[in-house]
Amino acid sequence: MSQIFKPSTNTLARVSMFGAIFFLAILAWVLVTLNRSSLATRQGIVLQQPVPFSHDHHVAGLGISCLYCHTTVEESSFAGIPPSATCMNCHKLIWNESPMLEPVRESYRTGRPIEWTRVHDLPDFVYFDHSIHVAKGIGCASCHGRVDQMPLMYQAESLQMEWCLECHRAPEMFIRPRTEIYNMEWVSTDQETEGARLIADYRVQSKLSCSVCHR
Amino acid sequence: MSKAATKPEFALMAEFRSSRELLHAIEQSQAAGYTQLEAYTPYPIEEVWEALGQHKSKLPLIVLIGGIVGAFTGYLLQYWVSVINYPVNVGGRPLHSWVSFIPVTFETTILFAAGAAVLGMFALNRLPMPYHPVFNVPRFALASRDRYFLAIGSWDPKYDRRATEEFLLGLDPFEVNEVAS
Amino acid sequence: MTKFDHPAEVPSTSRRSRIDLASMREHLQDARGPRFWRSLDELAETEEFQELLHREFPEMGVELPGGVSRRRFVQLMSASLALGGLTACTRQPLEKIVPYAQQPESLVPGRPLYFATSMTLGGVASGLLAESHMGRPTKVEGNPEHPASLGATDLFAQASVLSLYDPDRSQVITNLNRIRSWSAFVEDTRRETLASTRLRLLTGTVTSPSVAAIAQQVLSEHPQARWHQYDAVTRENVVAGAEMAFGEVVATRYDFARADVVVALDADFLTTGPGAVRYARDFMSRRRAPVDHPEMNRLYAVESMPTATGTVADHRLPLRPSQLAGFAAALAAEVGLPDAVAPAGADVGGQGEWLRAAARDLQAHRGSSAVVAGDYAPAEVHALAHAINGHLENIGRTVIHTAPLEAMPGDQTASLASLVDDMAAGEVDILVMLQCNPVYDAPVDLDFTTVLRQVGRRIHLGLYRNETSEHCHWHIPAAHYLESWDDARAHDGTISLTQPLIEPLYDGKTVAEVLSVFTEEGSRSAHGLLRSYWQGVLGESGFETRWRKALHDGFIADSALPPTGVTPGTEAAAETTALIAGTDQIPDGVDLAFRPDPTIYDGRFSNNGWLQECPKPLTKLTWDNAALVSPVSRTPRWSR
Amino acid sequence: MTAPGKPPIVAPGHTPGSVTDQISSIVLTRMPRWWWAAFGASFALVMMLLYALTKLVFEGTGIWGLNIPVGWGFAIINFVWWIGIGHAGTLISAILLLLRQEWRTSINRFAEAMTLFAVACAGLFPLIHVGRPWLAYWLLPYPNTMDIWPQFRSPLVWDVFAVTTYATVSLLFWYVGLVPDLATLRDRARQRLAKITYGFLSMGWRGSATHWHNYETAYLLLAGLATPLVVSVHTVVSFDFAVGQLPGWHATIFPPYFVAGAIFAGFAMVITLAVPLRTLFDLKDFITIRHLQNMGKVMLATGLIVAYGYVIEIFMAWYSGNWFEEFMILNRIQGPYRMQWYALLLCNVLAPQLLWIKRVRSTPALLFVVAMFVNVGMWLERFVIVVTSLHRDFLPSSWGMYAGTRWDWAIFVGSIGLFLALLFLFIRFLPMISIFEMRTIVPKTQAREPDEVSP
User: Fold this and answer.
1) Residues C474, C506: one domain?
2) Which chains does B contact via 3+ CB–CB distances below 8 A?
3) Phi and psi dihedrals of C57, rounded to 5?
4) β-pairing, C96-97 with A116-117?
5) Is the preceding omega at residue B128 within 30 degrees of 0, hence cis?
6) What tens digit of pLDDT does each residue of C421-473 get?
7) Is C79–D57 a contact, with Cβ atoms under 8 angstroms apart?
8) Helices (H), C151-307
């Protein structure tokens, strides 16, 4: 028998062995990262809307409360998207000729609703109820981010299950006084002790069982 | 027989027809003061590596470590998952239901130990090594059939191209070859 | 004159496979007014076009023949797309949020609204509370304020919401398999009906005062018109029995809350029949033995097949249907009905001891017992039950007689038979079949389908394109009750209102709406008809308030039929027993008893998956229908 | 070595050289015609399997005969059957190595390969039965965006670990055993591609004393590790049933009874394969009557243990006094699946009794017939355990019947095709008898000094 391989093959063989392990590790890492990236979650991505509504302007600029438009957040699973008539309460009088607002006026005129693109979209097998979260001291900003700083709306958090569980496993780290629910700027000075007290006060029973959300 | 090499050779290698001849040659070489010896046989012969002074393999220790690591990995994974990260009450069983954790712990122990055995064996044997100077000898192909080879490394302090070849030829081999490096 | 070919011959009316000018001229010739067609093929009525229409709107839902269906192809495509990537990594498709332009008052998105309405089965209403999510009815429960049911429902009402969304429902008005509009129907029909006078209406049992009123209007405007009612699950024996006992038609209902001893004569009163949910509640209230009723009630059940009522009974006696009348006569004699004759052969297989025990118990509970005859028991049994109840002074206490619920009570089978005779004699010009399916469920010896062909114009209103609509010129999709304005009487006579929770999905029509086409005023909306009828009944003053209250409650308050002071004649009963005694009490052969299916009813719910999946009482059959034969009868002994 | 009266484990006249040449020539020369026909046939079955699996992925498990109450059907039956077959290889290699049974040498290689392929076939079924096979990786614990983990108190999760470990360790064991032989093939091969391929796979094995020293240690350690593993795997498989509370499943006899059954089935399959192969490839010198006899004895012994298991099941049903257990046994005997049970008794209890007769043990054809009976019987055993226990639920209203659909059968038969196709490929490309171990035993079995014979 004579030599089949060159001396360099030895190095190649060892490198490729470690390389394969390295490659698999990288592949796993890439998949995991992709799965958590905004490519999969749409976190932080501004979606095209029929009207470029600015929460920044309306909330921070004009000081309109969340509840003015999202009227049902305290009583229903669904926070509510305002009907065109709500927009027209003000826009009958101001900016009533703005071309940007033409879809709103048209909807109001014709009764055909505006079709907004959904920004926060949980999968259909998840049952989420706004009212209980608001009632137990979870602020809007905890899940929706600093909406008052968003000229155009985007999803601030990943909305993946691990993100839900992060809070459900330790609600004291996220709870706030009920008076501060709609306060976008509220920051706790002592979350841990304050949170534990609120958990007791509001009798929060953070549920972890599957059937709470997957009914 | 060997040809003149431009590079310094790797070793000299004698081919024998039986394991008894090989063992005899090893004894003679060691008696002659050679220390850098290596024997090649078509099947495992305990006397050969004993003769070459290899009494204890490090492998059992590696396997033991692998097994212990596997056991801890398996058990701690289950403990962390079931008690710390994802505690679920299943029919009132304790979160740390160690009895239920035994099968998986056992399996990971075996898995890690077996992995350590195989990888350890390759590592100790410096494999993979598709290229090796001994393959330069055409008749070395018979090492995987029915011939027995003894090689004396050129880095042996007592090595001398001519004297060593003479010595090997004196052991009544089938033939002696120079192993080009 | 529009041509009316027999629908079964429709394809043959236009054998021409190619368009030719002559046929087009022919079609245009007798057209009056504007007429529209989408292609020359349609105008010429070519065979290809008929075929295309048939494919587009298949009559019995046949899938496209051969090869891979489109549905299958899409399934495969979507499955391979799902496999295309790691599914855990896929992102969700973008969704739209569509808010209201003007949000309706009191509607909270995400929270349901509840509306009181009612559903009829066999003509009798049950009061319901329907849940609606953003304008879509999703769940039906009983209306707790409805006096006839007190909040309970049966499985038909529970499952009815699935029928609303049934994609197999009939979706378009058709004339000879061509899609037409409602106005085309109205125009076409009115032109014909004014000329014709021999109009026949065929409906199921009607208890609705407003439907009855409009039907009466049609009858009065067309002197030769007749109205027939037919339900395959008919309660005509109840009517006939009442007539035998009282000489007039009365309705009977029971107050099981006051009954200590109940004898059921082949009566499955706990699960079937219009009052079942209320009866079950009342009956069971006496099984819990509360403080003021230290003793439970006692139920003796005689039955010809296993029923849920029989399983509840304290004493159960299986009996052949043909022996039931004999048993009733023997019971009448045993409780001491004057001059009652017990048939000689009635005491078969030790049932005499059972009967005497039941009779002793009845006698010991005068005024607090009830003998209940089943809806499908012979009229004589009903008559005897009335007589026994009268003799035991139960009437007015546990047994209450009122005026009939039905707008036109009577022998429905005879009514249908007379209609068939008229049709066979060629004396029917127009037959309007409303919410019924006689081709499917008429007695087979009437040969309804054959004589139907002799009727010049046949109109059918139904939720589905069914066997009857296949034989009709016009088919009109019916509105589901969750899409309808209607009214009907509950089993105690309470007027129950039906209000829609959603616009008709397929432009369905109600019975009243179709009937209105035949009146002088012409087509009117169901809402208008109902409202104007009740405006007439309730009077102008304060109508709006009372009407709104009634709609909110789902019924018109205190409209239950009051008890009538009737008493059964004992002589007639004695004669009946004598008549029964003269018949053979141990007849040969096999008794065959037909009963409505516990979940599919008369077959109308066969497309409702929930009802098909619901196991039938005792047999637990699903998706099936079986002839129940006793294991004893299965042995060849009886066949000798 | 050879005891008087016993046939030898290698036919006389062989030398390390002749052994090497004969075995490696099978791989290095062209395959006979029948190989192509056999491989073609099994490949066709693989295509059928792929077709059925595609159908399954698109349609879902509804194409199977599963129903309520019989929620476990062919998938679990086939899984347990295959995993049982997969026990013989590691058992022969590991346990017989530790017990220094040298006759194992000529059958261990293809028994190990058989193990691997059987485990591959077995592993297929849990993967496809989950309904959404593309999400089967959810069975493994890995950090995921749902932040949830497998439930480690479930025997089904133990099973995942046991089978994965078993497959991995079997593969390693098999590969390690192959390395010196791959080197032999590398040295014998003539085509460049074959040289390079075998060269890569053998990793540069030189057969030096150091190599052999570490190698022998590793091999022995692996055998030591594989021995408890092989026992644990079928024990854990039996837990899938035994931890459940169904009469007919909830029995403490299950672990030993399953392990014995697995060895029983595995040896039957080894015989099923060895008898034709030794004829077709003229390997009668290496797989001798002695091997067949020994395997027959093992089958007889394990078969008796299995029969004991059947008896104990019946005894325990009576002894427990449990109404449902008693009914389960009576239902086995008289119920609608009684024919399967009787067939199982015929195949697994009666047929192996023939092995008491030495004539049967030493006649390959008869042995083959008995082995075929056992193959069928062991499948039936799993069918009886799974289906008869499930089809009569605790309430008569929940009773049902079960039968595999054509897709069930297509996947089952297809998995046999997959097994055979893999086996034929193995025969084609790898030495089916361990060459270096044959070289080891040849000198010991020969009366004279073989080293004196020159090539």
Assistant:
1) yes
2) A, D
3) -125, 75
4) antiparallel
5) yes
6) 999 998 898 999 999 999 999 999 999 999 998 898 899 999 999 999 999 99
7) yes
8) 155-164, 182-195, 209-221, 236-246, 276-285
Question: Average pLDDT in the D410-422 region?
Answer: 96
The tens digit of pLDDT for each residue in D247-273 reads: 989 999 999 999 999 999 999 999 999
Contact (CB<8Å) B104/D158: yes
Q: Which residue has the tokens 């996947």?
A: D411
pLDDT value at position C417?
94
Q: Which regions in chain C score pLDDT beneath 50? A: 1-17, 58-66, 84-88, 638-640
The answer on C219 and C321 residing in a single domain is no
- Chains C and B, touching by 3 or more CB pairs within 8 angstroms: no
**Please, are residues A203 and A162 in contact by the beta-carbon 8 Å criterion?**
no
pLDDT of residue C340: 82
Residue C331 lies in a domain: yes
Q: Is C585 helix (H, G, I), strand (E, B) or coil?
A: coil
Chain A residues with CB under 8 Å of B135 CB are: 1-4
**Domain D16-453 fold:** Formate dehydrogenase/DMSO reductase fold (1.20.1630)
Q: Enumerate neighbours of D (3 or more CB pairs within 8 A).
A: A, B, C
Give the pLDDT confidence score for residue C38 in this predicted structure. 59
Same domain, C213 and C301: no
What integer best gives the mean pLDDT of chain D? 89
pLDDT value for C182 = 94
pTM over 0.90: no
Place of tokens 């105008």: C43
Q: Compute the distance between CA of residue C306 and CA of residue C617 in angstroms, rounded to an integer.
A: 9
Please tell me the predicted confidence (pLDDT) of residue C47.
Answer: 65
Same domain, residue pair C544 and C452: yes
- Output D444 or D219, whichever has higher pLDDT: D219
Residue C84 in domain: no
Structure tokens at C398: 């546990």
Mean pLDDT computed over A68-85: 92
Per-residue pLDDT, averaged over D357-378, amounts to 94
In this prediction, residue D93 carries a pLDDT of: 81
Same domain, C531 and C462: yes
> Which domains are delineated in chain B?
8-55+134-180 (3.30.70), 59-124 (no CATH)
Q: Is the pLDDT of residue B120 over 90?
A: yes
Domain CATH code at residue C514: 3.40.50.740
Q: What b/e readout covers D14-47, taking b as 16+ CB neighbours within 10 angstroms?
A: bbbbbbbbbbbebbbeeeeeeeeebbeebbebbe
CB contacts of B141 in chain A (<8 Å) are 1
Q: Is residue C157 part of a domain?
A: no
Question: Could you give the C-alpha distances from C613 to C121, C403, C599, C616, C617, in angstroms and in order?
Answer: 20, 38, 9, 9, 12
Regarding chains D and A, contact by 3 or more CB pairs under 8 A is answered as: yes
C272/C300 same-domain check: yes
Q: How many residues does chain A have?
A: 215
Contacts of D417 (CB under 8 A, 6+ apart): D41, D42, D43, D44, D45, D46, D48, D49
Q: Cβ–Cβ of B128/A2 closer than 8 Å?
A: no
Q: Residue C434: give the domain boundaries.
A: 173-234+408-553
Q: Which of D145, D196, D200 sits opposite A161 (nearest CB)?
A: D145
Q: How many domains does chain C have?
A: 2
All structural domains of chain A with their residue ranges: 8-36, 55-81+118-213, 82-115
The predicted pLDDT at position C79 comes to 59
What is the DSSP track for A121-155? ---TT----HHHHHHTT--HHHHH--GGG-SS-BB
Q: Where are the domains of chain D?
A: 16-453
Question: What is the C-alpha to C-alpha distance for residues C388 and D48, in angstroms, rounded to an integer?
Answer: 75
Q: Supply the mean pLDDT for chain A.
A: 91
ipTM attached to this prediction: 0.72
My answer on whether C266 and C398 are in the same domain is yes
Q: Is C265 a member of any domain? A: yes
Report the greatest alpha carbon distance in chain A: 96
Ranges of H-type helices in C348-447: 351-364, 379-391, 412-424, 438-441
